[in-house]
Every structure is written in structure tokens, then in C-alpha cells.
Specification:
With about 280 residues, the chain is α/β, with parallel strands linked by helices. It has a single domain (about 10-275), classed as Aminopeptidase (3-Layer(aba) Sandwich), CATH 3.40.630.40. It has 8 helices and 10 strands. Strand 3, helix 4 (about 95) and strand 4 form a beta-alpha-beta unit. About 40% of the residues are buried.
Length: about 280
Amino acid sequence: MPTRQTVPVVVASPHSGSVYPGEFLDQAAVPLTALRRAEDAFVDELFAAAPSLGMPFLAARFPRSYVDANREPYELDPGMFEGPLPRPLNHRTTRVAAGLGMIPRVAASGEAIYRGRVPSETIEQRLETCWRPYHQTLSLLVEHTYSSFGGALLIDAHSMPSSASNLGSRDREGRVDIVLGDNHGESCDAGLVAAAERWFRSRGLRVLRNQPYAGGFTTQRYGRPALARHALQVEINRALYMDEARHEKLPTAGVFTRLITGFLEEMGYQARETLQPRPLAAE
């Protein structure tokens, strides 16, 4: 939390967690290096200046391959589990079909994470210890921001593998640096999205909207522009700040971190100008 929240912005990082429970590693059929490829590595560090800019910042510590906080709570593959299921599962989504439900079935490499079927009581255990605390906290932060400022902007911070950001070309001109996701115009004020795009483009970065990432559960749940609650997903090409093979930050990571700090400053200004109610002029 900031010492005092001064702008109607909340920042969240659901996928940068790297604390792997021992019992999870015991169940895993793949090495830790394979599990870590799913992390939005170092994103919590890139956005770490948020509290000093007057913005609350929430970062998950549990890893994405253990619990994905950017999925619906029961968005799961029933075939993964052994035993009675707690309730009807939402299993007919493209994400579940790909093995990427709230409890993922596969690692980033496509290999099965688990040696066998997972006990069904694992679902509620992970919801209670990870998913629900994360979203209860995020909901409180967004609602407190709305109550204090008359509006709220949630910046949902992510990173993407460089392989996902290459549009069929091996040269620099074919690479996308930033993807802004607003659920195709449904989760965020168009002016705020345009301001974010302008800011990144003015720094020489290549930006796309909603391709290949339009936003997940977080933007869908918290983005309600008609109710003055806005959510914008920001995907950053990992090659800009890290060596993906070694899972290490590049020497340029500090420069890029300062760039993200500048982006947060800009969005704080834009959100304050756009979302805070204007006082009525004196008659």
C-alpha cells in the first residue's frame, strides 16, 4: 500500500509468483525449470514503484502453474481430478481445452504437470489459500479506490514470451513489444487505452491492442466502464528485459523498469483527469 493513495489506480500482477509449495513439486512430473516458464517473471519488480506513486500494488506470490488467479474459480478440467468434484465445473472453455484452467494441467512446454490424477479436495484447498484471498484483496482495493475517487483504473500487469509476440518475422520489425488488452473495448475507457498506447509508442515500442491477448478473468470481472471501474491488461515482451532461456534479468532491466515507472506516472495522471468527478461550476 502507498503511504497515501493519491491517484485512482490499482496495479496487480497475478502471474509473477515464484514460491513453489513442496507438496506441489513432489506431485510434478516436470522439473522446476519447466514450471517457471509459465511465470510472468520479474513483472512485480518492473511495476514495484507503484506504491511510491500513490497506487496500491497487489502481487501474487503463489506461482501460476499452481493456481492461475486470472481464471474463473471453477474453470477446470474434470479429467484431472480423482474423487467427487465440489460443484459443476466450467470446463468448456478454450483455456481448459488447452490445459490452462485455474489449476493448470500442462506446463508452458505443453507437458503434463502432474504424474497422475489430482485429489479433488485440492480444488477447494487452493481456492481458499490462494485464489480467494487474492481476489478478495483486489476487490477491496478497487472498491476503496472507487469510493475515494469516484472511479478506478486497474492495471493488470503481465508478460508474454517473445515467441508469442513475433508476428511471423525474425527481425525487429516483426516483433510486438506491448499488447494492451481491454476485452475488445469492453473493460476500459477508450481514452485511457489510447493514452497508454500513445505513451508506449512515443518511446519507440511496437504496440498492439487485444492481439494475441485481449484480457482474461481479471479484466472481465473488474472492468465495468459504465460503473466507472476500468481494467486494462498490459502484456510486456519478456525479451525486452530478461533472458528467457536462463530466467535472468538483462543488464537493461533497470532502464526498462524506469520506463514502466514513467508509464505508471502517466496513467496516474490520465486516470485522475479522466475518472475523478469534476466539481460543478459556480452559478
